[in-house]
């Protein structure tokens, strides 16, 4: 329905009806709900004094303002709410313990270690793990599954603590961003010889925002020049006042390297938990919790580490984790032992899921396989819709200039994959800050850590996005798929290069350049040590051919771990050869570079001049 104009703009008008929009919706999403032309909503916003493009994601307030102006009520639905509604439709309540007070039993605190880079987070996690393996389980092979549990004695009582084994606040924020609360207590590591640094403050702010109590580990007290008192003084400015100064934060001086006072730190965690938190859960219900880390294992399929938050998870249970589901085929604890069940605050690795869930996805056990499948499918569909809702037409960086001029796109869609969430976020925020004039918007449809996958290419196809791989490569068949479908995948290892190129493309100034052409990939099957040549990779050529004297990079678990290598030596049996083709085995020598492992992939390439399109 069209109503009279406001300030010269024809205004779609409602009758006070309520429309529901997902958080972060754009004017286009809004327009779709009321069957209006997005351009008219842009005009309305302009009249209200706000410049907003049709496809940009806007704040809740903007949506409310716009709705008010057009006589609609708007109800903003957060992704968490949407999910809760989905679960409710199956009569499932997530996040609350069932039963009464008396059904609740004390559970161990779950701890994340945060702090500035190089202050000793990783070392501390190792030290804790080494000195406090739970009795009776010692001797098992320590396995990194993303979390582990230790035991310590406090006031003659055995107490357990669960540690999330990914140091740093990326994991913490990623999970929190998805509405998942994984952490009860944060250990803030501050090196006594370095003091409070930018990421110390960042970590502290994350913990505060999440309302998580902090225990401060003042590390590296063995180092000369260590000044634990100064650290206490500095942190006072951020509201963390040590108990000995009359505050309520426990500070413990430690040396992760020498294993000093680790027990006191654990005790401080337990005491802080007892003093400020009521950590209890009902072990006698269907298990619920969150996923911490997952990967695809060649032999075992999807392997997900989950943290049970309430209830007890058992082998044979049917579970949904994010958009993955399945029946628990086996469970392994952090020592690699098979276990039959896992109670509250216990991390376990679960086998038997259909696919790999994301970190921070919630999990729940349901009665029937069918329910699990339906929930998983609905979630997957929702994610797909959210991504596809942003679609425009397919572009490449080279022809961007032309389509821009022709007025065919107003938006450059990007998918960013990288080796670490930090670099991905840094790249994303730099790109979003690019000032490229008014005609065009940059929009990041999807970002993530890990190799460029077929599903990334899928999304790029559907939404005409350009894929950026930062220190990662395409995995499996993704490269061929991109090639076949004409999806532009760009690889970078330096942030500013990525930014420069995108900026140049947006300004229509992309120079013809040398293009990297992949020649072949070789999978390392064995590593031979030679006293003369260093490490030799015994390989099977997986694709293309590998030639001597070409460039190579080393990929481990989908991530680029070394660039600019040279295929210096190439052998088949005892003979030096110049090339080896797909399907054959041989030996590769990378010159001085020796950091190779079984299952690494050596990808070789050549630079060729790229014709201007
Ligand atoms: P992260 O970046 O916070 O995970 O820091 P790491 O755990 O990787 O530690 C950074 C460096 O500091 C490594 O070389 C550690 O061996 C060293 N380090 C960590 N803790 C201590 C400590 O207590 N004393 C000394 N002397 N060195 C430490």
Summarize the structure.
This protein has 613 residues and is of the alpha+beta class.
Helix content: 25-40%
The CATH superfamily of the largest domain is identified as P-loop containing nucleotide triphosphate hydrolases
Bound molecules: guanosine-5'-diphosphate
Strand percentage: 25-35%
Number of helices: 15
Give your account of this protein's structure.
The protein is an alpha+beta fold and 613 residues long. It has 5 domains: 77 residues, no CATH class; 171 residues, P-loop containing nucleotide triphosphate hydrolases (Rossmann fold, 3-Layer(aba) Sandwich), CATH 3.40.50; 97 residues, Beta Barrel (Elongation Factor Tu (Ef-tu), domain 3), CATH 2.40.30.10; 110 residues, Rossmann fold, CATH 3.40.50; 95 residues, Elongation Factor Tu (Ef-tu), domain 3. The protein is built from 15 helices and 34 strands. Strands 26, 27, 28, 29, 30, 31, 32, 33 and 34 form a 9-stranded antiparallel sheet that branches. The protein has a 6-stranded mixed sheet with strand order 7-8-6-9-10-11, with helices on both faces. Helix 7 links the parallel strand 9 and strand 10. About 2% of the residues have low confidence. The structure holds guanosine-5'-diphosphate. Guanosine-5'-diphosphate binds next to helix 5. GO terms for molecular function: GTP binding; GTPase activity; translation initiation factor activity.
């Amino acid at each position: 329905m069209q109503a009279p104009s406001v300030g010269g703009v024809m205004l779609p008008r409602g009758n006070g009806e309520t429309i529901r929009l997902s958080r972060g919706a754009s004017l286009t999403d809004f327009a779709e709900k009321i069957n209006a032309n997005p351009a008219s909503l842009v005009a309305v916003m302009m009249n209200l004094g706000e410049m907003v493009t049709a496809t940009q994601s806007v704040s809740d307030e903007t949506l409310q303002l716009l709705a008010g102006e057009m006589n609609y009520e708007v109800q903003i639905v957060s992704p968490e709410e949407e999910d809760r509604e989905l679960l409710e439709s199956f009569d499932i309540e997530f996040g609350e313990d069932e039963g009464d007070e008396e059904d609740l039993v004390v559970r161990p605190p779950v701890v994340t270690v945060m702090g500035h880079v190089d202050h000793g987070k990783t070392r501390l996690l190792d030290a804790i793990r080494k000195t406090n393996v739970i009795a009776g389980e010692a001797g098992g092979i320590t396995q990194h599954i993303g979390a582990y549990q230790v035991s310590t004695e406090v006031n003659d009582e055995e107490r357990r603590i669960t540690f999330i084994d990914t140091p740093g606040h990326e994991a913490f924020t990623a999970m929190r961003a998805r509405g998942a609360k994984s952490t009860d207590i944060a250990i803030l590591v501050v090196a006594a010889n370095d003091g409070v640094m930018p990421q110390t403050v960042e970590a502290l702010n994350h913990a505060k925002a999440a309302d998580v109590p902090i225990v401060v580990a003042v590390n590296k007290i063995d180092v000369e020049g260590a000044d634990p008192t100064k650290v206490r003084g500095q942190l006072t400015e951020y509201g963390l006042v040590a108990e000995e100064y009359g505050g309520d934060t426990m500070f413990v001086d430690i040396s992760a390297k020498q294993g000093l006072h680790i027990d006191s730190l654990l005790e401080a965690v337990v005491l802080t938990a007892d003093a400020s938190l009521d950590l209890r859960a009902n072990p006698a219900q269907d298990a619920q919790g969150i996923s911490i880390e997952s990967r695809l294992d060649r032999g075992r399929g999807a392997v997900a580490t989950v943290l049970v938050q309430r209830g007890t998870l058992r082998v044979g249970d049917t579970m949904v984790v994010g958009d993955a589901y399945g029946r628990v085929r086996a469970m392994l604890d952090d020592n690699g032992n098979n276990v039959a069940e896992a109670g509250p605050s216990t991390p376990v690795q679960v086998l038997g899921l259909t696919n790999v869930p994301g970190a921070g996805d919630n999990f729940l056990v349901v009665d029937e396989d069918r329910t699990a499948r339906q929930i998983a499918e609905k979630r997957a569909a929702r994610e797909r819709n959210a991504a596809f809702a942003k679609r425009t037409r397919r572009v490449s960086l080279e022809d961007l200039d032309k389509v821009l001029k022709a007025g065919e796109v107003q938006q450059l869609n990007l998918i960013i994959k990288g080796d670490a969430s930090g670099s991905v976020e840094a790249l994303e925020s730099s790109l979003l800050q690019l000032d490229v004039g008014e005609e065009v918007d940059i929009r990041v449809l999807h970002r993530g850590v890990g190799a460029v996958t077929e599903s990334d290419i899928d999304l790029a196809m559907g939404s005409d996005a350009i894929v950026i791989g930062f220190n990662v490569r395409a995995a499996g068949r993704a490269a061929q798929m991109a090639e076949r479908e004409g999806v532009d995948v760009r690889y970078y290892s330096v942030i500013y290069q990525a930014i420069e190129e995108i900026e140049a493309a947006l300004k229509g100034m992309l120079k013809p350049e040398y293009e990297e052409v992949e020649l072949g990939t070789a999978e390392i099957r064995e590593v031979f040590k030679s006293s003369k040549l260093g490490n030799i990779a015994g390989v099977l050529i997986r694709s293309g051919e590998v030639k001597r004297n070409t460039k190579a990079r080393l990929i481990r678990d989908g991530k680029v771990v070394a660039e600019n290598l040279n295929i210096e030596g190439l052998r088949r049996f005892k003979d030096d050869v110049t090339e080896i083709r797909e399907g054959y085995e041989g030996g590769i020598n990378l010159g001085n570079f020796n950091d190779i492992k079984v299952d690494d992939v050596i990808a070789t390439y050549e630079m060729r001049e790229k014709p201007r399109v």
